[in-house]
Design brief:
- The structure holds 2 protein chains of 2 kinds.
- By secondary structure, chain A is of the alpha/beta class.
- Helices cover 29% and strands 22% of the residues of chain A.
- In chain A, strands 4-3-2-1-5-6-7 form a 7-stranded mixed β-sheet.
- In chain A, helix 3 links the parallel strand 2 and strand 3.
- The longest helix of chain A has 9 residues.
- Chain B is an alpha/beta fold.
- Chain B folds into 2 domains: 266 residues, Aconitase, domain 3, CATH 3.30.499; 152 residues, Aconitase, domain 3, CATH 3.30.499.10.
- In chain B, helix 3 links the parallel strand 4 and strand 5.
- The longest helix of chain B has 16 residues.
- Chain B is globular.
- The chains are: A alpha/beta, B alpha/beta.
- The interface between A and B is large, with 44 and 59 residues.
Amino acid sequence: MKTFGGKVLFLDRSDINTDEIIPAKYLTEISKEALKTHMIEDLKLEGFNPFSKDVSDAGVIVTRANFGCGSSREHAPWAFEVNGINVVIASGFARIFRQNMFNCGMLAIEVTESVIDKLFEHKDPKTGIKIDFQNNKLMITSKKGKETFDYHISEFDKALVKAGGWVEFADARY
Amino acid sequence: MTMTLTEKIFKAHLKDEPFPGTKVLDIDVVMCHEITTPVAINDLIARGKDRVFDPEKIKAVIDHVTPAKDTETAQQGKILRDWARRHNIKDFFDIGKNGVCHAIFPEKGFIRPGYTVIMGDSHTCTHGAFGAFAAGVGTTDLEVGILKGVCAFREPKTICININGKLPEGVYAKDIILKIIKELTVKGATDCVIEFHGDIVKNMSMESRMTLCNMAIEAGGTSGVCMPDETTVDYLWPFISSEYKNKKAALEDFKKWKSDKGCEYMKVIDMDVTGMEPQVTFGYKPDEVKNISEMEGTPVDQIYIGSCTNGRLEDLRIAAQFLKGKKISPNIRGVVSPATPKIFREADAEGIIKIFMDAGFCVTNPTCGACLGMSNGVLAPGEVCASTTNRNFNGRMGKGGMVHLVSPAVAAVTALEGKITDPRKHMKKKFK
């Protein structure tokens, strides 16, 4: 099974929508790879540079509430996937985005706001997160030190990740 | 046991419960458009599973960029078109017959009370106006829907909104839903269905109910839903008249798709629309909404009237009332896109297309184009559009552009004045 984790991109804002993650003008692309350079290029966030090394190095996103709201476009998780990001940790997700992540075999981990606050205390370009998928734990490592948090995802979402996605799961079962 | 409408639909369509809390439903209608479907089609081909579960239950349309604007969009259309032909999908709407998905599919009578509907489009919640469970999904859910006719959901909770009072003139379904989103916030209905009740909804046309349900997703809602009634029967009658001996029998049948008295709601909101003002969004989120009195005078560059929210005949009629015999401001570009060919024809027959053109509007073919900044009315950086669409996200109608979401009435008078204007001021002059 694939591993989950990497350097952390902290996006300190709630309600980041899928238009910001990948603008509609790129939805004419049929290949996922073509989305790579446009990920979060329209993100409205003070001082944020979508073309920085922090973005290109990231393997995990840590963000706030209602991440992925708006359009149903699965191009949003695909844009993350082709950039090597397969985990988003937030204090809440929009339903369609959350399902799209698990349907693609990626992780959308919902934790409390207080856990998100604690993760943000580690904010630094070198901060990393490792996911222990089997035991539902996330480990953050930064200059500040190491911390481990438990998380919960549904049995179904876990099964989707294990299967490699919803197509694989559904095809085997229905 | 009392149940909500959504609980009844889930029970009737339950195929599997692979884990507690996860319900896999049989899907009655899988709708497809050319933006989110081609990747699903290509993936099915790559997996050697280029099949469809039931060509009768699949509906497809090219609507987001049509006619194609470049090679990429032409390819997307071609993939969908070739696939529809290959699998004998008869309800496929190509150029000349195509319209905005959430306007054309109901217009064709494809949605019935009690149905389950999915589409790779977040505004699929529109179809809940017919008493259906209609949810937007991503491409993978769509792909499984196409192949197996199923989709998995967490059973949503229901928020009940009772809309009562006296709706002031110049205030419409769009204003009501904007005010509701302001109250719920953009995440207030996540994993919930929003049920719309009350006298105001009872007296609404199907078009207005679709406007309400259309924007449920902007509060995070899985589906909006209205209870089927006489209005639903009247709208669907041309498509169901052979199935029922009369409208009364149809109504009796439809009534099983209603929430029971005393059913369990997560939340009940009572809304009195008496004295309500037209509503306008200000920032970059659809819950950033103000009374128009706080927004009047805001200059705009473009007016857009159209989309799955407000591109139906009723909307064009409302706008035309204000535009008749007048010219839009010289500083304004006006774009109107009737949402389907049928709406276009009817608007033409009623003289509405002429009113728009005489006023100085550009009338485009039915398409989603400008709403999401793909074609037919994209904004330049720094430009502002008052739009009857559903999203005011940063860059939504073009990078660096700003959108104010408004009703067709506000859009029309704003076009005349060149700045955000209260339609009730024009009504006093015109209708007294």
